[in-house]
Amino acid sequence: MINIPHASANRPLSGPRMPAFVGYSLWPLLTLALLLSFCQTPENRHTADRTQAIPENIDFNFHVKPILSDRCYKCHGPDENARKANLRLDIQEGAFALVDTTENRYAIVPGDLRKSHLYDRVSSSNPDYMMPPPDSKLSLTPREVEILKRWIEQGAEWKQHWAFIPPESPEVPEVNLDSWPENPIDHFILSRLESEKLEPSVEATKEKLIRRLSFDLRGIPPTIPEIDRFLADDSADAYEKVVDQFMSDTSYGERLALEWLDVARYADSHGYQDDLERTMWPWRDW
Q1: Which pairing describes strands 98-100 and 105-106: parallel, antiparallel, or unpaired?
Q2: What is the pTM of this model?
Q3: What is the spatial distance between Cα 144 and Cα 123, in angstroms, rounded to a whole number?
Q4: Lowest model confidence (mean pLDDT) among 45-59, 131-145, 206-220, 250-264
Q5: What pLDDT score does 49 carry?
Q6: 86-110: per-residue pLDDT in tens?
Q7: What percent of the chain has pLDDT over 70?
Q8: Helix pair 238-247, 250-263: axis angle to 10 deg
Q9: Beta carbons of 246 and 213 less than 8 angstroms apart
C-alpha cells in the first residue's frame, strides 16, 4: 500500500489558507488567458499591418501563398467537399482557370488587374460580395490586399514549393552603410534593415555571443570553462572554433532532433486536434 501524505503536511502552521478547489479552478482561467494573449485578432493584425513595408518585388512563396493558404484555402483549397464556386487556389491550374463561363471571368489574369476576379472580390467593401465573406470570421488587411494587387500587376508569377526549386546564388544587394558588412550575408541583412528604416545593433560582447550561440546550437548555456577559453582566444577565427566545438557536441544533435521529433509527432496521443488515438511507439522503436 502506498502512503500518501496529508495535503496539509507542507502548509504553514499559521496564516490565511486558500481552499484547495479555488487554486484548481483558477487553472482553466489562467490557461485561457495565456492562449488569448497569443491569439492574433483581426484588430491587432491590422495594427501591425500598418507598420510593415510592402516588398517592392512580390514573391509568390514568400508573400502571396501565405495569404491564400491562411485566408482562402478553407473554401478554395484541396478539400473537394469544402470547395465553393468550383474555384481552387492551391494549384496553378485552378487559380488561372476560367471560373465563370457566362461572363468569361478568370480568378487571376497575370498582368491584368481589371480582369482578375480575385482582386475584385478581396478589395470590395460590399459584405455580400467581398472575400473572404464576413461570416467566415476571416479578413484581409490593406497590406495583404495590396500584396495581391502588386503580384497580379507584376505578372502573377506562380512558383512551386521552395523545396522543388533549384537554389541559385542571388546577386549581393548594395547597401548604404557599406562599412558594416563583413561578409555577403551581412549585405542581405543590412539591405532588409535599411528597407525597414532600421539600424543594425552594436556588436555584442563575447560573453553574450557565446551564450546566444550555445542556446541556438545546443539548447543549453555555455559552461564557465568554455566562456573563459573563448574570452582568452584573441585569434581571428575564435568564434568559428566555438561553432565547430558546439556542433561536434552531442547536445547539438539532441537540440536538432528535439524540434524534428515534435514536428514528426514523436509522442503517442489521443484527441490531439481532431484525430483519434495515434500509437507511435512502433515507429519510434524502428
Answers
A1: antiparallel
A2: 0.57
A3: 10
A4: 45-59
A5: 57
A6: 899 999 999 999 887 777 889 999 9
A7: 78
A8: 60
A9: yes
Gap between the Cα atoms of 111 and 129, Å rounded: 23
Q: How many CB atoms lie within 10 A of CB 252?
A: 17
Cβ contact 224:210 at 8 Å? no
Contact 106, 117 (CB under 8 A): yes
Specify burial of residue 88 (Cβ count, 10 A radius: 0-12, 13-18, 19+).
Answer: buried
Grid cell 470590395 is found at 124
d(CA 48, CA 68): 19
- Reported as a single tens digit per residue, the pLDDT across 159-209 is 999 899 999 999 999 999 999 999 999 999 999 999 889 999 999 999 999
Let me know: does 123 contact 147? Beta carbons within 8 Å: no
Q: For residue 239, what are the contacts with CB-CB under 8 A and spacing of at least 6?
A: 209, 213
3-state secondary structure the chain: CCCCCCCCCCCCCCCCCCCHHHHHHHHHHHHHHHHHHHCCCHHHHHHHHCCCCCCCCCCHHHHHHHHHHHHCHHHHCCCCCCCCCCCCCCCHHHHCCEEECCCCEECCCCCCCCCEHHHHHHCCCCCCCCCCCHHHCCCCCHHHHHHHHHHHHCCCCCCCCHHHCCCCCCCCCCCCCCCCCCCHHHHHHHHHHHHCCCCCCCCCCHHHHHHHHHHHHHCCCCCHHHHHHHHHCCCCCHHHHHHHHHHCCHHHHHHHHHHHHHHCCCCCECCCCCCCCECCHHHHHC
- Give the tens place of pLDDT for each residue, 58-84: 999 999 999 999 999 999 999 999 999
Lowest mean pLDDT among 13-27, 122-136, 201-215, 216-230: 13-27
Residues 6+ apart with CB under 8 A from 225: none
